[in-house]
Amino acid sequence: MLLLSLVIASVFVYYSVKTSVSPVSPPIVFSQPPVNYPCNITLTSRTAIVYTDFEGLPSGFKNKGGTWSIVSGGYKGNALSGTDNDKGRGSESQYYYNTGLSNYTSLWITTKAMLPSGGSGWYGITLMNKQRNSLYDIEIYTSGYLEIWIYNNSGWILLNSSPISGYKST
Fold first, then answer.
1. Considering the entire predicted model, what is its pTM?
2. Average pLDDT for residues 48-72, to the nearest whole number?
3. Where are the domains of the chain?
């Protein structure tokens, strides 16, 4: 019997899923991909720390700088829209969920971000520490570059930049 552990990426917190693969008569022969494996998968639990599609302004969120509102044109209907005024940490505006995450050993974050039609600039997600004095920015520029930045007491530092293969701004 072969035991596997399966991890799934999502907005939810997942715990390992135990699966088992048991050979059946005649024995399974692993020859070449694609091979189908008979198995049983059981989800043990999943919990969302927060989920919002921003159809309205959700509770539990705060902002540092910027002007924030709900506008039409989102993934399901409405969307959160922000206008940067350089008054947040690192001279960029943040809209964040105000909760501690130190009790978690593993988290998955999923987001959908886009610029309004015809817009240009950066869009993405920011991860802040508890003291809100250090940030990681994962950003996409409208020309199709993905960049990862850190901001701390030394200022902004570019950690990595890469073109996105097949990127389309619309």
1. 0.62
2. 87
3. 1-48, 61-163
